[in-house]
Amino acid sequence: MPKLTHTRRQFIAGAAIAAGGAAGGFPAVSRAAEPVKIACICGLSGVNSPVAPAVVQSGQLAVAELNEKGGILGRKVELLPIDDNSDASGAVKAFNSAIYDKKVNIIIAYETSAARNAGEPIAARANMPYIYTSPYEGGACGANLFIDGWVPPQVEIPLLKYMVDEKNLKSWYAIGSDYAFGRGIIDFAVKEIKSLGGTVVGEDFNPLSSSDWEPIFTKVRGEKPEAIIYCTSNGSPNATFLKQYKSTGLDLPVGSFSIDELTALKIGESAEGVLYTADYFTSLDNPQNEAYLAAMNKMFGSKLLTPSNLSVPEYDAIHIYALAAEKVKSVEAAAIIKTLPTVSFKGPRGVIQMDKEHHAALPIYLAQIQKDGSSKVIKSFGLIDPGNQCPKFS
Predict the structure, then answer these.
(1) Is the pLDDT of residue 3 over 80?
(2) Angle made by CA atoms 34, 37, 39, in degrees to the nearest 5
(3) Domain identity same for 233 and 343
(4) Is the full-model pTM beyond 0.85?
């Protein structure tokens, strides 16, 4: 798969092309009524900016596929990428713009936890259907909120158990970005390590605004753990973390809960050896993934950004929304919110249905990053339940 090569200017130009127009080679849908508008809110600037353009590409393909088949209920579908700056204040502006200015029918967003927490109440007050596609720390609940990314029980337990069982690791140093996602993921990891009989000899968090991890690595050297587990924000913090770790000369097993396939390719050799679990890899051998990758290559060519577990959930979520609308013959918000848990979509990751407390059971795989930055899948854990996240919606 190609690496991250196109510039912000190229991305904005690409996003301006109607999803279903000439860029994808798909025929346009005749306008029988006002278009169905999908807001793709994501961090086109800020810490998530290395990943967000790939999320938009997955959304553009899903919309093009829908328009090729006649849209949703005979109406053309439009994808509106909106930048939330990867932070809470940007999310407030993005959600208000999507709902009140652009008058979208649904928000399908890849965001930081801080951005989600800021935007979700705005969507709730407007009774706006909101599908959150990011992996996150768990426990986000709302009548209008649905999540098709992973939560801690799905990825942390398999990875930590593998590292304990296969490498006999007993002492750990836990490191995270200092916000809801980083702290939530590390808190879960610390508890799981202790339940497996291990010891956490150190735990540190770095502000999101900081790119300097050297003081923490100095502490790691002093504590002499057998392994490191970390969770930064997605995107650029992974690069600063792993590049600085590589320069320290430390040589410990590293497990990550924030790396993804696209970012690993961009980092390259500095990420070599890192273990991580995810619900999607480009190497998955199934007809849906083969078709998805072929269509992405056809649509974007040399500008294609490597799909990952951070971008594919946007594609799945758009198709799930379309299935819900077709099932109830409406895009009316209340009908969509009621119907979203009842439909499933078989996509590149497998069958996805947000029916478990507004979350989804997901297939989980373990990969190790190679010297060239590629991710080699070394184990499949099968379908893993999200556990108890929002019992009132069960």
Answers:
(1) no
(2) 165
(3) no
(4) yes
